[in-house]
Amino acid sequence: MNILFICKGNINRSAIAEYILKHQLKDLIDIGAVDVKSSGTTAAFGSWGAKATVKMREVAIENKIPDLDLHRAQLTTPELLDWADVAYYMDKKNERKLKRMFDEEYFNEKCKQLCDIEVPDPMGGEKADFDVAFKLIFDKCSEISNEIRHSLKRR
Fold first, then answer.
1. Which strands form 2-7's sheet, in the order they lie side by side?
2. Per-residue pLDDT, 42
3. Greatest Cα-to-Cα distance within the chain, rounded to the nearest angstrom
4. Which option is the CATH number for 2-149: 3.40.50.2300, 3.40.50.300, 4.10.320.10, 3.30.470.20?
5. For residue 46, what pLDDT is reported?
6. Cα-flanking dihedrals φ and ψ of residue 123, to 5°?
């Protein structure tokens, strides 16, 4: 199963989601049952290849999520969306942008909003803003992780 997380710049929300889920599903990733990636819809916060922000890397360390320092931002491409079995986006701005980038029917087939509420973009905010985004994403990734484990056990 291939999971893709998408946000605006791929340096905060989608990046941390990727590394949270990779941490939670490490055993399944190691055997090739699951793969997880992330991407962004725009390069608004810098060029592709940028690291996750310092504040998000600090939140990852505080919460024992390894390897976020290895992350490099990438653009959401047709190839990445084709690769994904499901793609989770963070907010309505991401949804509108993705619908402009891809056929709406294809979007509807592949993409889901990550949470019932929008995950606020912490960019430019205080540490508390990053903590809020992390908590929402962590909780949802835990649900996704449990769902994946349950579905693989049924096979």
1. 35-40, 2-7, 86-89, 111-113
2. 86
3. 44
4. 3.40.50.2300
5. 59
6. -55, 125
